[in-house]
Amino acid sequence: MKTTIKDLGEIELLNRLKRFMRCRQIDDDLAEINTINKNLLINTDLLVEKIHFSEKISNAKDIGWKCITTNISDLICSGSENIISFTVGLVLPPSTHWEWVENLYEGMCEAMDEFGGEIIGGDCSCGETKIISITAIGEMKPPRLHRGSALPGDYIVSTGYHGLSRLGLALLTSEQLPSNVEISRELANRAISAHKRPYPAKKALQALIECKPESMNWRAAGTDSSDGLLEAIRGICQSSNCQAVLSKTSILKDPDWPEDSKWDEWILNGGEDYELILSIPKEWAEALSKKLRSAKIIGFIKEGKPNIFWENLEAINIAQSSLFQHF
Amino acid sequence: MKTTIKDLGEIELLNRLKRFMRCRQIDDDLAEINTINKNLLINTDLLVEKIHFSEKISNAKDIGWKCITTNISDLICSGSENIISFTVGLVLPPSTHWEWVENLYEGMCEAMDEFGGEIIGGDCSCGETKIISITAIGEMKPPRLHRGSALPGDYIVSTGYHGLSRLGLALLTSEQLPSNVEISRELANRAISAHKRPYPAKKALQALIECKPESMNWRAAGTDSSDGLLEAIRGICQSSNCQAVLSKTSILKDPDWPEDSKWDEWILNGGEDYELILSIPKEWAEALSKKLRSAKIIGFIKEGKPNIFWENLEAINIAQSSLFQHF
What is the nearest CA distance from B122 to chain A, expressed in angstroms? Predict the structure, then answer.
């Protein structure tokens, strides 16, 4: 029989978790962060079982990877490349196997090996459903990205494909696809991987920093597309008090993505895609789309009450973004 | 009918919560902390309904106060007086009334008005039971308190009464008292207040800092008694690899506390008391007990395998500390 965390008890559980923490303050109630000379960005994310993750489709390692990377994505889309540390609050039913907890932390550590940062502390409690509460801290450097920094005349850039994670979710849950077309095995694999192992746009942020024209001051609006491509653009419009005009033909699709307009909904509102959505001056946008193969100019920003239109000025229905409202 | 958070929806809920946040970064995915030139202490605490709080005995304002102050206590007992900021992760059933959420945040703000700090961000999700995940950040200054810094020859100091919160819980839940004695109305009020509105030992930390003999370097072991007086001392012994010898007659009791040995258990293992338990050199301990009326020397530290004894060398049963194991 597998060991449960009830078998272990709280003290032994916390003892075993210490090997995933790389700091020395394991004997105190809390942790130190040596961040002298740095300002910080901080982000707290909650992942609730059956709402944000399901064990039917993701194993504990994938869930561990995902809860760290989705949090890192929020730091990256705000301009922080240097991830410093994490605290992890875990609510677990007493019947949870220790093996599950171990795999969760191993998945978290795989993500930290890739993107930086270390677990410095946290808390544990029993509860009816599994809940993971992650607080991530990153260094705040001058290249800050704000949702509210877009200006009329900016170009809108997306740094990669959208819709893959949504397709992956559908494949993993045997959900009906938007239409009855055959999809390639390669697309299916990319989609499942995008859903299980999201990969934050760290390289895209680095490219954005490197290709800023020297003559320009830093002024860039950005967010990630974790709640969907349109929701990201809606957020920028709302916070910057402006309108976006999108070019339908410019929105990048995976090369194997079905040529069927019924599939567009997942591109626009699929969510969990973790690309950077940027609003930057034209010259900079052009430099970025040259430097970064996956980056594409998909529209522009203009004055007006927050809204999104296609380039023929047809308003875009963004009601679907309520998909990512969790109440 | 009262408005529920399901009626509001996530966007409106987050909008309404903004008034409790004093920072300007409300339009981004995360928050900035301007902590240049500071090192930090960070602490994450989970409060799960029915385990850490019950709405039968505490209203939302009290719960808000408690989840901030218990977290602050961890910062204070590690030496941090300057509380900087909090993030709040909230899991709530969709049927939760907005009024409850508002009162929770008002209680949090009352605690921050008293002890410092501000809410700078967080996350919200629905879930089956209410869960509050708080991450607190304080400034780390040279007077650090570690659980593992005790040395043989140190005196053990407690900065206040114990057992009150446990009595308060019993009174609030109509639990049978340890023996059938009458308790004063004043004691009952103090006990209920200690349970509902715990008050971290900030003044005791300040007194400790002020009364350090000039000839001494800073070296002090400390923790809070949130898991009980004996558990705090056990933690210091374990982390410092030493033994504690306690004087039964020196442990302070509320003036109205019943003179009945059956009541001692709540003094020793009641928990949720939030006093500082310190292990410091004799001269310093004496200075502190003179300066701070509520501080009392209750024992000393000696060499040996981690354990706790009464001064007649009778070993103390600390098995009851498993009361505060949450699995």
Answer: 5
Chain region(s) in chain A for CATH 3.30.1330.10 = 5-140
d(CA A182, CA A286): 35
Q: Which of B43, B202, B316 is nearest to A31 (CA)?
A: B43
Per-residue pLDDT of chain B (327 residues; tens, 9 = 90+): 899 999 998 878 888 888 888 654 556 667 787 777 778 899 999 999 999 999 889 999 999 999 999 999 999 999 998 999 999 999 999 999 999 999 999 999 999 999 999 998 888 899 999 999 999 999 987 778 999 999 999 999 999 999 999 999 999 999 999 999 999 999 999 999 999 999 999 999 999 999 999 999 999 999 999 999 999 999 999 999 999 999 999 999 999 999 998 999 999 999 999 999 999 999 999 999 999 999 999 999 999 999 999 998 888 876 544 445 555
B146 at A interface, C-beta within 8 A: yes
Domain B145-324 has what CATH class? alpha beta
Residue B68 distance to chain A (closest CA, Å): 15
For A113, other C-beta atoms within 10 Å of its C-beta total 9
**What would the two tokens of residue B130 be?**
């209410």
Q: Is B319 on the interface with A (CB under 8 A)?
A: no
- In sequence order, what are the beta bridge partners of A296? A158
CB B230 within 8 A of CB B316: yes
For residue A327, give both structure tokens.
């109440």
Distances (CA, A) of B303 to A28, A131, B156: 21, 42, 14
Determine the residue type at A268: L
Selected residues 160-179 of chain B with any CB under 8 Å from a CB in chain A: none
Task: Assign domain A5-140 to its CATH superfamily.
Answer: PurM-like, N-terminal domain (3.30.1330.10)
B131 close contact with A: CB closer than 8 A: yes
Identify whether the C-beta of residue B49 lies closer than 8 Å to the C-beta of residue B129. Answer: yes
pLDDT digits (tens, 9 = 90+) for A164-217: 999 999 999 999 999 999 999 999 999 999 999 999 999 999 999 999 999 999
Residue A236: its H or E element: helix A229-240
Residue A38 sits at the chain B interface (C-beta within 8 Å):
yes
The interface pTM score, or ipTM, of the predicted complex is 0.87
- Numbered ranges of CATH 3.90.650.10 in chain B: 145-324
Q: Best interface-test mutation with B: which of A24, A39, A42 has the largest number of B CBs within 10 A?
A: A42
User: Is the CB of A127 inside 8 Å of chain B's CB atoms?
Assistant: yes
B51·A127 Cβ contact <8 A? yes
Interface test with B, best of A123, A234, A238, A324 (most B CBs within 10 A): A123
